[in-house]
Amino acid sequence: MTTNEGVAAALTTWFEAKLGYPVAIDDVHRHAEGWSWHTYTMTVSAANGTGKRHGYAVRREPEDGLLAPYDTRQQYRLHEAVLHGSDVPMADLHWLETDKSVLGMPFYVMDRVEGIVPAQWNARDPSIFPDDAARHAVGVEFVDILGRIHTIDPVSIGIDFLPTVGSSDEAAVRQIDWWEEQYERAKLFDVPLLGECIGWLRANVATSGQVRLVHGDYRIGNFMIDEHRHINAVFDWELAHVGDPAFDVAWAAMPLFRGRSPLVSQLIDREEYLARYTEATGIAIETEVMRFWTVFGHLRASAPHITAARAFEDGRAPDLRLAAMGHQNLFILRQLARELGYEAPPVGSSTEPTTHAGSPIQISLHNVLDKIADSLSTDVAPAVDDPFARSQASAAAELIRNLAARVEWRATDQVEALQRLRHVLRSAPEAAGIGEVVAHPLPDASEAAALNAALVAHYAALGELQTWLAVNNGDGDLSSAVEEFVLWDLAAQAKMLRTGMYRSRKPEDP
Q1: How far apart are CA 501 and CA 121, in angstroms?
Q2: Residues 205-244 pLDDT 10s
Q3: Which of 266, 297, 328 is the last residue of a domain?
Q4: Which domain holds residue 482?
Q5: Are 103 and 148 in a shared domain?
Q6: Residues 337 and 490 sit within 8 Å (Cβ to Cβ)
Q7: In sequence order, what E strands does 296-453 have?
Q8: Residue 429 CA to chain centroid, in angstroms?
Q9: Does 387 sit behind a cis peptide bond, omega within 30 degrees of 0 on the bond before it?
Q10: Model-level pTM greater than 0.70?
Q11: Per-residue pLDDT, 210
């Protein structure tokens, strides 16, 4: 029921019941901007000769995805409260439908807002921002709207259904707990750097002292601009909560949304951004607060990427973009390492597989995959009109290109990782509770399943050691050995994956 034709067929009778006259539905598109909910836009026309036409957008809850479990009723109520209780630009709202028999999952309907959604991958498009002045004007409006969100009184506009907190510090601890739980629930094996991140966050809580309504995903890509380049709608409120407004401030400034630009969300200078925000809200974001929420932002960004990869790996969600997110998570981890003051040792610019000249096909698998990716991204994707189908072709190209660079990551490399891990774990005192994981001999490199199982077990043991060290931090040599492995592991992972998501950019691009 998620094809464009299926959605149109299912909603025809539904709209007729809501509007009270026969309708025809056309111009149906599933949009690629939202990676969580399914968003469709369409034109609904009266079929009784009156000439009535109206553009609608339908937000359908996914069966599973990045932010499950979902609550369509709460999303509708939040949208309604912000729409009618503030001057934050929002699409007009129409109906909530909780009956799953219509589209397979609950959904709600709002006006289709006309305009362009600037995203981090199209922010240099001159049709969106023709010059620096146009970009800056949107950036100023972007900050001002964030200020409006953070001056909303949730209770006065009827947002009494979100959990309350007693202080911004309590809100921070809740957020750490929540996203650590998401990571633990979704992971296939431990990511050592995220263990370091969570430990750092718990030891360095720093907040603004304020408790406000927080959007939860305020950034480039989650708003639309109209033909006059004014922001006419703010989207994607599914992570809204009552908490420290400094999170939104730091989130919009994350490296993840800057690309190679120095500007916050590729829109506005950081110093001007912070100063204008303080002027709008009276809230000054201190340096240590900004850093705390920036480090947290990397956990908050990484956990959904791991969740996405797990949903795809388990077969619960076939969206190729979710698989691509599993690869993209490496870039988030690389940025996190830098934010924590770690710099992975150099491993070379890329992993170039050897060309197998003796192969009967006379071409390496790497080159075959790379050329397929080039064709998908340069020939197929631009020729596809439907936005969602185009996004799938682009995601497939990115996946194939990244996989091409991983062809040479063989069992011998996994064995090296295991050997390094075992060296660290053997140094752990018995009190750390590591167990017997290092007592077992390494499996033969040809036994792929056993090798993967051994890696999972050893990573889990390293996680236990990190937990032990957080409490018993007197062993400096062991702590250094763990840190050294974490950095080596990050560098080794980077060696597997060239920067495919940026590969099409020209060197002079920011």
Answers
A1: 10
A2: 999 999 999 999 999 999 999 999 999 999 999 899 999 9
A3: 297
A4: 411-491
A5: no
A6: yes
A7: none
A8: 38
A9: no
A10: yes
A11: 96
